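Appendix B. One record, verbatim.
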Amino acid sequence: MTKETEKSSKKKLFKQALHLIDNWLDFQTYIKEIPGVAAGIFVEDEIVFKKTYGYADLENKIKLTDQHMFRIASHSKLFTATAIMKLYYEDKLSIDDRVSKYLPWFISDEDPNLQHIRVRHLLTHSSGISRDGKTAHWSSYEFPGIEEIKKQVKEGISFFETSEILKYSNFGYTLLGQIIEVVSRQSYHDYIRKEILEPLEMKNTVTVLNEENIEQHAIGYKIKYPRKEREKIEHVPAKIMHAATGLSSTVEDLIKFYRAHFLGNDLLFPDYIKREMQRIQFKTKEGERGLGFALTNIPDATIIGHGGGYPGFITRSGFMSEDKIIVVILTNAIDGPALTLFLGILKLLKHLDKEKDKFNIDKEKELPDWKEILGFYESDWGTSLFSQIGEKLVLISPGADNPTEVLQLYDHIDGQTFKASKDKAFASPGQEIEFIDGPDGKKVFVDSHKGKNTRFEFDY
C-alpha cells in the first residue's frame, strides 16, 4: 500500500466513524447537561465533521450554530506566540533578547530576576513570574490596564528564578502582547488582524469583545449544581490581558489557524519556524511546552495545541502533525468537559487506525446497510450505542468519557443477528445478539446477558 493510498484509507475509516462520534457527543451533551458544544474534525485536507449541540442561550432556547463565537481564553496565547515568531522570522526581534530591551519599564529594584528574563522564557512559561499578578480579575471580572501592569512589575512579580520551574503565566503573555505593539508599531489587535486573521480568512475571530460582536457570542454559564438551573455569566472584557486570554473564535476558524501550522505550507512562515514552535522547549513531570503550544502525549501520538478557561467557557483544541488531524471542542460552561471530549475523539481515532484491518474498509464489495438497527438502546443496566464501521457492528457505552474503553465489535451472522468478537473477555465473546421488531414497531436488541434492550430517545 502506497503512502497516499494509506492516507485515503485512513480518511475513509474515520469518515465511517462519524456516526459514532456524532451520537457520542450528542449523548455527552445530554447526560452531562452541557449548555452547548461545538465540535470539528479535520483530516488530511478537509473538514470531515463540524457540528453543534445544545444552546447558545438556555433562557431563550436559542440553538447553538457554527457561527456563534466562543471565548477561547488561553488559545489566545497561540496567536500571541505566532505573532512573536512572525516578527522573529522577519528579523524584527530575537526571542533570546531580554524583555527589558523592548519594555524599558520591565525592571525592578525589588525583583532582580526580571533582568534575566528573555522573550523565550515568557513564551515557554519558564520566567518564574506571577501567574496573574496581584489583581483579583478572575473573581471581580475587572481586568487590569497597562498602568496597573507596570506598577506590579516595579513592585516585583517573580516567585522563582528564571528557568527554575515551569510556572504558567497569563502575566507573561500580557507582556508579550506589549512587545508585539512596540516592535510592530501598531496595536496588538491590528497586528493580529492584519498578519494572522486576514491572511488565513478567519472572519469569525476577534481579539476584543465589543458592541459590534457581542451578539454573535454564545452566552457563558456557571457550574451546574444538582437540582438547580445554570446561571449565566455576563461577558467579561480582558482589557490589557487580551494577548493572554482575550480572543473569541469558532471551530472552523481554529481549524484554519492550526492548518497554517502544518508542515509543508508557507501560509504564515516557513517550516523551520513551525518546528521550533512545536518542539519541546521545557519539560516537567506535569507536561511539556513548545513556544506557545502545549504538548500532550497519548498512546502512539503527541498532540500539539492548547486549552482555554474563561468565565463561562471551557475549550480545547489541537492537532497531530504526522496524521494531519485537527480536533476542536468548544463549550459554553465553566464546567464544560472540553478536554474529556477532545481526548475521547482523538483516542477513538487512534484506536480505529490501530485496528483498521478488522473493519475491511478497502474491500471492493459493497458494505452492508444496517441503518435500521443503529442508534441508542437502553435496559436497566444503562444505555448502549450501536454504529457501523466497515463490516463491523460497533457497540460503545455513550456515557463513557473514553469511548474506546468499552468498545465491542460484532461480526454479522445473517439477517439481523451478530456475534461478539473475541476482543473483550467480559463482553460475552462468541455469543450472539439479535435485533427484532418490538410491539411498537421499534427495534429491540436481545442478548443472553442483559435480555431485551429497547430504543432510547432523548432531548435537551
